[in-house]
Write a structure and sequence with these properties.
single chain; alpha/beta; binds flavin mononucleotide; 31% helix; 8-stranded parallel β-sheet
Amino acid sequence: MIDMTVEIAGVTLPNPVMPASGTYEVDQVHDGFFSPSELGAVINKTIFLNPRPGNPPPRIWETPCGMLNAIGIPSEGLHNFLEEQLPRLRSLGPPVIVSIAGNSLQEWRDLAAAIDGSGSADMIELDLSCPNLEQGFIWAAEKQALAEAVSAVVEETTLPVISKLSPNVKDISEMAVIAEGAGTAAVSMVNSYLGMAIDVETRRPALGNITGGLTGPAIRPLAVYSVFATFQKIRVPIIGIGGIATWKDAVEFLLAGATAVAVGTQNFVNPLVMKEVIQGIAGYIEEGGLSSVRELIGLAHRL
Ligand SMILES: Cc1cc2nc3c(=O)[nH]c(=O)nc-3n(C[C@H](O)[C@H](O)[C@H](O)COP(=O)(O)O)c2cc1C
């Protein structure tokens, strides 16, 4: 038997594969494809405290081996999330990660306290890194702001806190060290890379928001490097994210030092991808004569 379990901050995940926030709708459960109960964890699209509309269209632009999005995180707000979405997430079976984003330290605190108080979350992920919000502040790009936001949340909750970091910085590993110092129980990396496209027909920026976040296989080598560069600098676990389209891509992240992985853009391309990744990792472990997925974590560092 292959042991696929991994542990993130005291929470046992049945396997290391989960969706990336914003790329997996609880209400569009992959009926007929696979059951979300097979996932390592489930996560919502980031919620804000108050309802917000998101960015003007166009919000999506296809790029070679990826996509730009400037959705801007439309949100129905905390109240609706607690009433409707969270119970659905909880009912799916795997550990529940709730992704939140605050516009101020007080909002971070209020959201964290409410999620903690709901009793329905296993971990809280802080989206400190969305690059395409209209008021465009990337908490994870400023050392002090990052430390303050993480500390504010940690003070409000006993749940493990995951800090989702931005690749739009000089050195993401340094930001991971700061998040760890502020009390984060894990980091997830990466969120999308700031970019843009110009429509040569209209001679205007292609996205309504002008800039957007680049995701998909195009960013994978950059994201793998981020995990590799961070692994030896922190003690808390890393959730590796960025361009995972096959099980081999996921294994790359594990070998680089990720304890778990999240699949994003590829969910739109292949609704079966997460199931295939789980099965592929298990097959790889078996063929390699190993017994546990945990044996893979960070192996690429043994140079
Ligand atoms: C359409 C779309 C919406 C996203 N929404 C969120 C979000 O609400 N919160 C968040 O933390 N990340 C969000 N992301 C970023 C993903 O969670 C992930 O970090 C990023 O897409 C990189 O992974 P990938 O290359 O596998 O897509 C979104 C990405 C896409 C493509």
